Amino acid sequence: MRRAILQRFILVLFGALILNSLIFYLLGSKILLNSSSDDMLYMLEVLDNSLDYDGNLAESLNQLDHVMDDNNSRLTVIREDGTVMADTQADMEDLDNHLGRREVQDAMEKGSGYARRRSETLGIDMLYVALRSDHADVILRAAVPFSGFQEYLPLLFPAGFLSLLVAAAGSFIVTNRLVSSITQPLQDISKEMLKVKGDYTELNFEHCKYPEINVIADTTMKMSKNVKDYLNQIEKERMIRQEFFSNASHELKTPITSIQGYAELLESGMIQDEATKADFASRIKKEAVRMTGLINDILMISRLEAKEAEVTFSDVRISVLLEEIVDSLKPQAAEAQVFLHVDCQPIMIHANLQQMRELITNLISNAIKYNRPGGQVWINVRETDGQMVLRVRDNGVGIPSDSLDRIFERFYRVDKGRSRKQGGTGLGLSIVKHIVNFYHGTIHVTSEPDAGSEFTVFLPMSREKA
Ligand SMILES: Nc1ncnc2c1ncn2[C@@H]1O[C@H](COP(=O)(O)OP(=O)(O)OP(=O)(O)O)[C@@H](O)[C@H]1O
Ligand SMILES: [Mg+2]
């Protein structure tokens, strides 16, 4: 890359130098031509003032002859009809009509004129300058050999060549340094990238003086960090999924083993007693119900995780729903000898009815399950700042502080034996948390072992606020 930039830079430099020389040559030629013709015009004006047009003009010109002869210069006096009146070099009879000459025409029209062309007589380039006389009806014309700027080229060549060499060497050194300072940070970056040997999550670049390169370096580092975070997240999710599947299969295996055992016993014909047979059948049914519950819970979690679009929303009257839930849980509460107290404002929330039922049922059912005979559960629903606040408090067994962070994990149970006895699988609070997240709400829990627990859920009332 460094070499390519250097090569291109040198090419551009040479191009610029050549263009510069060309412009210098063209402008120099033009300036030289103008200045020479101005000088000659001045000379003609002086001559015009000093020539004796009424006397012997040829005589006067002859006096200038020896000066003009030396350097092939020539002075001609031309009448307005184009015929030559006098000339310092040629016989007038040999000279044709000069009216067609450009400089003569210009002098007639504008007072003065000049032209540059090759002299057929001398075979060299000449500059012709003509002036209309102020004292007689004639045109004065001077001609001098003129090769323009080319004449000075041999003189200027050594100095020009030397300055070209100095400029080329100087700019090569400066360009070399400049290119190095630009390419060095890029080389450092590519070296660093090659060093990591495929693990682009550990990229670390030094800052350099060019902000644009720093932006590339910073963005690459940020991207590598994002990739690392993303890979970590994927790994974490893989572990959670793996744990979930092993837990789910374990939980399903238990009822299946029981069902299989009871079914085999019934099939063997060893059980003759009708009452025992009925008991086995009821156990099989209970385990099947438990399996159905577990599968429904798993499906619910996976639906919530996938954030399925088919969730239907409606205006849910929380007081009506709560009454219905409490009614359905009354037998469970009565069996556990737990008293329920409900205090609910008439609140309407735009949500999915089934999800709301699941959320509230799980919290109240836990408060009943993890309680003692004679225990109490207080359920309170309020509206605060456009949010529904649901509080479920109990004075049951409470949750140890080291388990508080974990109770929302799938299949986590503080006391596995007690939970299983109650038919629990440890998915209830995980579902609750998923539902709360689905509505962009929050859930808090405070608890003290042997004193009780309080779960508080905040849910936005309308979907726009969610
Ligand atoms: N109100 C509560 N008081 C004391 N412990 C609780 C309470 N609520 C939940 N827990 C603890 O948190 C654990 C997880 O609760 P979660 O509702 O997720 O599962 P579960 O009730 O055991 O089973 P599931 O709800 O799936 O039937 C419970 O096993 C229990 O140990
Ligand atoms: Mg539960």
Description:
This protein is of the alpha+beta class and 466 residues long. The chain has three domains: 2-154, PAS domain (Beta-Lactamase), CATH 3.30.450.20; 198-310, Orthogonal Bundle (Helix Hairpins); 312-460, 2-Layer Sandwich (Heat Shock Protein 90). 56% of the residues lie in helices and 17% in strands. The chain is built from ten helices and twelve strands. The chain has helices at residues 2-50, 57-70, 102-110, 153-195, 211-268, 274-306, 318-336, 353-369, 416-421, 428-438, and strands spanning 74-79, 84-87, 112-118, 125-132, 138-145, 314-317, 339-344, 348-351, 376-384, 387-394, 442-448, 452-460. The strands form three sheets. It has a five-stranded antiparallel beta sheet, sandwiched between helices. It has a five-stranded mixed beta sheet with strand order 7-9-10-12-11, covered by helices on one side. Helix 1 (2-50) runs antiparallel to helix 4, helix 5 (211-268) runs antiparallel to helix 6 and helix 7 (318-336) packs parallel to helix 8 (353-369). The longest helix has 58 residues, at 211-268. The radius of gyration is 55 Å and the shape is rod-shaped. The mean pLDDT is 87. Residues 362, 365-366, 424, 428 line the site of magnesium ion (MG).
